[in-house]
Design a protein that fits this description.
Blueprint lengths: L1 H16 L2 E2 L2 E2 L9 E2 L3 H10 L3 E5 L8 E6 L2 E8 L8 E9 L9 H10 L3 E5 L2 E9 L4 E2 H21 L2
Antiparallel strand pairs: 1-2, 3-10, 4-5, 5-6, 6-7, 7-9, 8-9
Amino acid sequence: MRELGTSAAALVLTVSLGVAGAGGAQAPTPGGGQVQAATPATVASALREAGYGVTVNPVEGDDEPSLTVKAGDYELDVWFSGCKGTTCDRVTASTNWDYSDDEDSLDTDLVNEWNSNFFTQAYVYEGAYYLDTTLPLRGGYTKVALKAWMEDYLGDVKDFEAELP
């Protein structure tokens, strides 16, 4: 009975992932199905496919990989963390608004209120407002999830910018 339960569960999982072939279940290949390998190269490719301008930045020393992403009027810093070999655990997108010429107008109450209502993280650092978001990549991601993450983030960027003094 235990073997039947395990086999049935494997069949359900296989069918739900869409990997059943004519000759039986087949293991998904990295990057070949819906789940993408958690690498900077696949993220850069998926963002390009979604219509964003992507520049892969050179890695210097022990730095983690990073990208510069052009999304409409916004230029985003995108960096990876928890990288081992070519795979990474997380990707973070960030943008900022420079107020170094008028640091007295920086409003931490605005930042605190934002952080209590949104999943993106706002903060003030060295005369600028920042807005960040992180997507876990460990184990892979789907292009649909990556695109939705970026669209949601850009919506928050626009909304946060509208709140700035």
